[in-house]
Amino acid sequence: MKPAGTLIAMVLAVGLLAAPAHAAGRAPAGFIGISPQSAPSDSDYELMAEADVTSVRLPLAWSQIESVSPAARDPDWSSFDHGVELAAEHELRVFPFVWGAPPWLSETAGAEPTTARALHAWRSFLRRAALRYGPQGEFWEENPELTEEPIRSWEIWNEPNIVTFGSADPARFAKLLRAAGQVLHRVEPGSKVILGGLFGRPLQVPPNIQPGKFLSGVYRTRNVKRWFDGVGLHPYVAGAAAMRGQITNLRRVMALHHDAHTPIYVTELGWGSDSYESRWERGLYGQADQLSFALSMLSMNRYNWRIAGVWWFSWADARGPTCQFCDSAGLLTDNREAKPSWYRFNVWTGGDAETVPRAVFEPGPFGWEQRLPAVPTG
User: Fold this and answer.
1) In a domain, 81, yes or no
2) Does residue 10 fall inside a structural domain?
């Protein structure tokens, strides 16, 4: 027999706040960040700060900033400036992933630059970015009213082991990574260069490559290991328990190449709240459960696995055409109301979950559905 409406409301209210036993802890300060799928607004950054988030992962799109050669026109930093400014106003530090060769280099759209001319342009772009956003950079000099939150960590590319973002060629990617490390370590000593987040369980292999095999190919490229300081991973799985195998496999590969002490950065992690439209969607409460399980596993094993941090994907649900689960991957709905996962997230960060209004859900033919305000008629 179906419960009465009053009982449903009571169950929802309790469920939104409740967390399973393994989520009773709190992660170390700064361990959990956000990887949004669209540019956050000022109010988004304010809410992130209330949730005790201190790091936000944003795309630094080379093809957008230098859409034409800098010899012909100055780079356009305005969009990324805006993100860094809003983050700094709320004492968040931006963690960029740098990717996307511009079309004037005659590369395949977005692919990694490998010609001598393209690699020279890549080095020049990274040098300008570091001098702009690093410690005592031009951006901070131009905005002295901001609390300085310099960029010290740079993720190079995004999911380079799948053809969505490039060639899925480890030797080709290694050239890009080596060039990045040489520039960033020289311009800003102490900065960290992170090998862009490897997609943990790619479909269609080949042309995509499993992350361990791809990482082995990078290591086998001459003179590359010394130029990166961390390995990024996107362990997208149907159930959080399967992350263990992905992480331990990467650790095994790193140990075989005498690189056991280099940390892993989980730069994207998430599930959708829709009801099993894809393998990464677990339903409204399943999303919250997977979040709790994953953050518990990563926090408890952060020393053994040398996990430097984790960035939840994503902040809010997306509208329009997007990836298989992105439309429901947010902690918040697209109109910024809280899902059960938001409350679990704040258990781990120590934030104030009550800063966001609670979304109201009700049972539907395909699981829990958000109840939206009635649209006036007449």
Assistant:
1) yes
2) no
